[in-house]
Inverse folding.
């Protein structure tokens, strides 16, 4: 007997609403317009704990323009700009 599968969807973390949670599927800093180079941005995200397979949850968002967002990454909380969060794909 096979178990039913739950359909998954993928969203960029920069588009996520408060309360959304999932698992990081990929990081691609080349698609982001940032003051940092793609290599520097990807390195910073990795240093903050945004690694493939990590659990993420959007906890809060800024009052003006919904930016920045506070994100729980596994066991830590990180504030990140939505523009830079666009480099992170989340599987829900």
């Amino acid at each position: 007997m096979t178990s039913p599968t739950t359909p998954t969807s993928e969203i960029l973390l920069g588009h996520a609403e408060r309360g959304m949670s999932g698992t990081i599927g990929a990081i691609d800093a080349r698609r982001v317009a940032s003051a940092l180079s793609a290599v520097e941005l990807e390195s910073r995200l990795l240093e903050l704990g945004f690694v493939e397979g990590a659990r993420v949850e959007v906890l809060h968002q800024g009052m003006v323009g919904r930016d920045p967002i506070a994100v729980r990454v596994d066991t830590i909380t990180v504030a990140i700009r939505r523009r830079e969060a666009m480099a992170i794909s989340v599987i829900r």
About this structure: DSSP finds two helices and six strands in the chain.
